[in-house]
Amino acid sequence: MSQSPAPRRNPRIEALRLVAIAGIAVFHTLLPWFDMAQLGWWVPSAPVALILGVVSLLGAFGNHVFFLVSGLFLLPRAADASEQPGYWHEQARSTARRALAIVLSVALYAAAALAVSAWVTPVPGVSLAETGWLVGGLEFIWVYLVVVALCPVIGWAWRRLPHVGGVTFALVACVFAVNAYIAFVSPGEEVRDLLEWRKLMSAVTYLASFLTGGLLARARLERALLALACGVAATLVAEGLAALAGDLAVMDALSFKSTSLLSFVLAVCAVALAARPRQAESESAATRLVCAASPSVLGFYITQSIFSPLWQPVATQVCQWSLDRSEWLLLAVGTVFSLALLALALLIDRIMRIPLLKAARLA
Question: Of 38, 62, 191, 194, whose CB is crowded by the most CB atoms within 10 A?
Fold first, then answer.
């Protein structure tokens, strides 16, 4: 079976991926301060609490965006190709290439972390004798790898399943009903085992996002902007009422890990808006920059996890210094620190990982 040429990147989708990873970067920097506010270590004003509540949504929002975008492109291709001869052979080849790119990316940064820990400065938790930094620390990456590996099977079933839209909506409804129970009734322990049922629900939730992305590829998206505006308004109302009441526990439940319905709805609307059919556009310098930087999103996701023992203490010190002076300075400095760290990681990835993948013909 002949392989069709890869389509040109959609700059709006690539820009959304960068926005999503920027949100994740800010989330990882400022979330500890939201947690400390819940413990009573400091008391934010209502406006700052509202902003911290919104920031708490960004982690799950970004993760949902990545699965939605993957489903948007991979599922329709697999479903359409499933009726052609040689489907399983071709899908095995393309899936192996995607999986190998992910595994090679993790291996590259794992080797870099071991080298830094051995010859530059110790990286706590990073050693060949420990596995937590490569297993639990990168759980999102491994969930993504499993979903990518399952895509040929899902695509084959997708083409043959009657009323696939209704089945997907029913699955999403069931998933978020369980998620509401987890967030508001039974959050479980702060640290979960990998096979604990709440942890597994995170994987199921991201699978639901992947399937929803497939639906978006066939949907009419004319009202995506209105839907996104309504989603943002609903989020601000929900978070704002909780902030005015000083109820940080409710704000935490609204954004609880991957269970947040608000994060999911915002991500669906954002991807739908970015995926709308577009007219031919001239390729500006900004467009080229976006499309050049977006492939490094995966690299940042890996590095920010593996090297977190190095950057998080610095972030904590910088944010504590800022909070001692002003809660608004905390937000500003935490955001700037996050974006600077993101820019540095994207640049390093562009120099180190991307050329390696291209040399291996995996990019």
Answer: 62
